[in-house]
Each structure stands twice: as structure tokens, then as C-alpha cells.
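In this supplementary section we document a worked example of the pipeline. Step one takes a protein sequence of length 446 as its only input; no multiple sequence alignment statistics are reported here. Step two produces a three-dimensional model, which step three serialises into C-alpha cells for compact storage. The input and output of this example are shown verbatim.
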Amino acid sequence: MFLDYEATLNYLYGKLGFKKIRLGLERIQRLSELLGNPQHSYRVIHVAGTNGKGSVCAFLTSILSKTGLKVGTYISPHLWSFRERFSINGLPVSKEKIVEVLSNMIPLIESMGAENEETRPSFFEVSTAMAFEIFKREKVDVAVIEVGLGGRLDATNVVLPDVAVITNISYDHMHVLGNTLEKIAAEKAGIIKDGSIVVCGETSPGPMEVIRKVAIDSGSPFFLLEKDFYFSNPFLELNNNRFDYYGVNCELKDLIMKMNGVHQFRNASIALATTELFLKNIGMPFNKDQIKSGLIHAFWPGRFEIIEYKDRKILFDGAHNEAGMTALRTNLEAYLPGMKLPCVFGVVDDKNYKVMFERLKDKISTFIVTRPLNYRSTKSQEVFEFIKTNFQSTEYYEDPVEALERLLTLTEAGETILVCGSLYLVGHLRNYVLTGERGLEYDRIA
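The serialised model returned by step three reads:
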């Protein structure tokens, strides 16, 4: 139906009303059924959690690919291109594949919305169904599926996972998921299916017990970080981090990972435990050399990532909520002790920018507040006024590119500039630094 990729994006972003969060499984179940339930054509690892989902998916993709398996990975949101949401062995699928798959789905989507617009699947639901269909057509051995929001009512939750992974529990999307950690944990534990293996990275007693009880009630084996598997001897060095892993059935010494962050030791351990258990479940050997190679080659852009630009070092970090900002502060103290950085800062409307600012301010020399290019970013002036009142060196540029270029005039060669507060902001400026393009792939990035 579509002649080109641009027309495909116009349909996705323009017609499907991606601005609405529409939790619930009725539409995705119906669309999946119309497609023949492609999500049941391969094994699945389902990953939920407040933070760390993307990193765990990146580790799993790289590690499992090195074992010889064909791995499909579905993530959201994307940093730059819609294609990033769907990858095969870590490489985004082609524009042609996007056009082909969505074109074939259009009659089904339109038939669902023919009588009632509310029954038409949403942007995220269609994207999720596209992932299921793409992975079936690509004949993947396993799909690594990242939850979009929550878990229980998320569109991805029509899969039957071999392993259900919950990375951690903290406060985010409270208006949807609940205002206590236990309520949020219950929503994320909704991805656990009868008999699926559960790997849990949340160790706080309250939310962890909620997850463990759901696993027990589902007859699911439960494996907990710091109890059934753990890491030790962490050594931090940018792009050369090392640690030892003590797993469910194995030990791995002097592991190297290029992904930076104190929290990545936990995420890597969760991914390694998941790999152990998944490979055993499908009868494949655990080859230590393959695992080590997969770990060292894992990459997740925009997460404490440094890129050289105009004799400066631009530090991109996707921290976009309170827990993420706490992790960013910890990483700044660990990797860049004693330094205060100039910062391009922008958030979308549903984030607690006041708490995010409080957790970061002591590590910043200058704030340049900007507006991430996203429909949920309408309060950038409000953010600026608050920070200006509470921080002496603060300026505002609505255009993120102008904000970054302004900081270049305020810094000298060799200095490091931080970009954080929103994945949309990070994706936009990261692409600008790498390519010189000022705009987005599509001007209403979702």
C-alpha cells in the first residue's frame, strides 16, 4: 500500500494517534490474532523494569547472538530512527522491511477501527504487532521484548516468555502504575506467565516480595540478584569496566564491558543469569568464550556515552526520571570525580523535574535548559524558571541545537559537556553531533 518509508511514517505518526497512552490488551490481542499470533513462532525473553530494561536487552542481544542464535529485539522509544525499535542480531531492520510489514497490516488495522475509533490499535500497539510479524518473517530463534510501560496491561504482554525479567522497581509513571513501589511491582510482575522462569533484579524487600509471590503463584522458578547470582570486584574505567560474575550454574572471572555506569554491573549480571537459564532451558551449552565476547561487544547508545565533537567531549545520558538521575550522579562521581559539568537539560511534561534537578545540581556548573522535540514537552519555560530561581548560572534556548552550540561558546577545548533529562533530547543531539542534521527523522517522534 505504501510507496516509501516516509509515507509509512506519516501513517504511523499521523493517523494512529500516538499521543495517547492506551493501556489494555484487547486491541493487541485482536490484531495479533488477525496476524495469526506471530509472537508464538519463537522463544521469548520479556524484560520489564523502571530502569535498565534497554541495557539488559542490549546485553542479551549481543550475548545470545554470539552463541549462534538469531535474535530479534524490540525496544522503545527509539533515539533517532523508528527502525531502531526492531533489530536482528543488533542491526536495525531495513526501511523496506518496515514498509512491507506495515503495508500488509493496514487492512487489518483499518478493519478494527471501521466502526469505532477506540477499537483502532494505537501507535505502540501497531509497532508491537509489527515486531511480532517481523521476527516471524525473519525466522528468529528468540525475541528479546522490552516492555513499553508497566507490564500487566502493556501491549507486549501477549507473549508467552521462556524467561520474564524484572530489572528493578522505582517511581515513574505513577499516574498509571500506582503511587507505591509495591503497586508498581505488581504491575510489572504482570508479565510473569505460568511456568516461565523469573529473573529479578529488585532486591528491596517490599517490591521484591510482591514479584516473588506472583512467581510462586504462577509455578515459576524465581532467581534473585544478590541471592542466586551476583557480581564482585567491580572496576570502573570508561569503556573498560571489569567484574567477576558468580551465577546460578557458573563463574566468570575478569569480564570486560564497554557499557559505562555503576548500575551496568547489575544489568550485566541480570543478563548473564537470564542467558544461563535460557540456554539451559532450551538445551544449549553455555560457552564461556562466546558469553565473554557478547558482553564486551554489547552497546547501548546514549547511556553514559562520550562522543568527541569540536574538541569537546559530549557526554550523553538518557537519565529521564528520578532514579535515572540518581544513577547519573553516581556515575559522574565515579568516572569524573570532583568535576562540575556544563549541561544541556530538557525534560518531558510527566517527569518530576524539580527532584531531577535537585539530584543533579551539585555536579553542574551551568544549565542550558531546552525543549526536547516531543509532543509531551510543553513546560520547558516552566522548567527554566524553576532552575533559574534555584541555580545561578542558567540560560534558556528552546532549540536543542542552539542550546548545545551555546555551551560550546562557554567552554574550552577538552572540556566535557553533559546532555541529559530526556531520551528524546539525547537522541536528537546525538544524531546532530554525529551527522550535522538539525531535525528529527520525523518531527513528532514518539
